[in-house]
Write a structure and sequence with these properties.
Strand order of the largest sheet: 3-2-1-4-5-6-7-8
Distance between the termini: 46 Å
CATH topology of the largest domain: Rossmann fold
Largest sheet: 8 strands, mixed
Shape: globular
Number of strands: 8
Strand content: 5-15%
Helix content: 40-55%
Structural class: alpha/beta
CATH superfamily of the largest domain: NAD(P)-binding Rossmann-like Domain
CATH architecture of the largest domain: 3-Layer(aba) Sandwich
Length: 281
């Protein structure tokens, strides 16, 4: 199936990044956010992101204008009725995602493909709330989407090869690379990454300084960003949620969230978005 227009659901950091990548790849994008104020604010940030790309010489002015003109911000989900594909990028809660896809399943044409940007939830379970499990797939982008080159593509039990190939073509059109990951909690990257992050949290609990942990990993392992700075950037609540999903999914203590992390989340110290996490912003 040829994909010409895409609806992206969600105006958070990930949704905004996926919109930018899709628009620059030449797709017509309907960007759905039911909260008009949040949508308008995020659209301004989208423009700012593209302007920075132009300033850095990574995007031509004409290409920026063409991409922005390809994006239509909507607050009515019925705009999904005629799109070729929907990419969901809302909060990482299965109840919210299943409610959304159930509603979309009734609205969209039969051939419309559904993709979820979940970083840890079961693709098969999410697909099960629709009547199109063969046309349902996971497309896990990484943040910040305009910069990060990787997308994990995850097939559910009933996802067709055609759906996988279409998703792969879209990723390629976005000038990104993809890997095929299994439909198990955390897929591939987060399954490895979250163990490291959790151990970094344990190091802080045991009295080490955040600056020393991050310096050790950036200079000792050549990481571009330390694990604690990364966790603050992603959001400690998100990290806690994914670790919980991994722990419940595998029953392995290596994924059991560090008690310090839970305390920080309970205290509302979620990282950059609240101004305080392992560092103060």
């Amino acid at each position: 199936m040829e994909i010409k227009n895409i609806m992206v659901v969600g105006a958070g950091l990930m949704g905004r990044g996926i919109v930018e990548a899709a628009a620059k790849a030449g797709y017509s994008v309907f960007w759905y956010e039911k909260n008009g104020e949040i949508g308008s604010s995020s659209f301004i940030k989208l423009k700012e992101s593209m302007n920075k790309a132009v300033e850095k010489g990574k995007l031509e002015q004409s290409a920026k204008e063409k991409a922005l003109n390809a994006v239509t911000l909507v607050d009515d989900i019925t705009a999904a009725a005629d799109v070729d594909m929907v990419i969901e990028a809302i909060t990482e809660k299965i109840s919210l995602k299943t409610a959304l896809f159930t509603e979309l399943d009734a609205l969209c044409k039969e051939e419309t493909l559904f993709a979820t940007n979940t970083s840890s939830l079961s693709i098969t379970e999410l697909a099960g709330c629709t009547k199109r499990p063969d046309r349902f797939i996971g497309m896990h982008f990484f943040s910040p989407v305009p910069v990060m080159k990787l997308v994990e593509i995850i097939k559910g039990v009933e996802t067709s090869d055609q759906t996988f190939n279409t998703a792969a073509d879209i990723v390629t059109a976005m000038k990104k690379e993809y890997i095929s990951a299994p439909d198990y909690p955390g897929f591939l990257v987060n399954r490895i990454l979250l163990v490291m992050l959790n151990e970094a949290f344990n190091c802080i609990r045991d009295g080490m300084l955040p600056e020393d942990v991050d310096k050790g990993m950036t200079l000792g392992c050549n990481m571009p960003m330390g694990p604690l700075i990364l966790a603050d950037f992603v959001g400690l609540d998100v990290v806690y949620s994914v670790l919980t999903i991994l722990y419940e999914g595998y029953g392995d203590n290596k994924y059991k969230p560090c008690p310090l992390l839970k305390n920080m989340v309970d205290a509302g110290h979620l990282g950059r978005k609240t101004g305080r996490g392992f560092y103060t912003y």
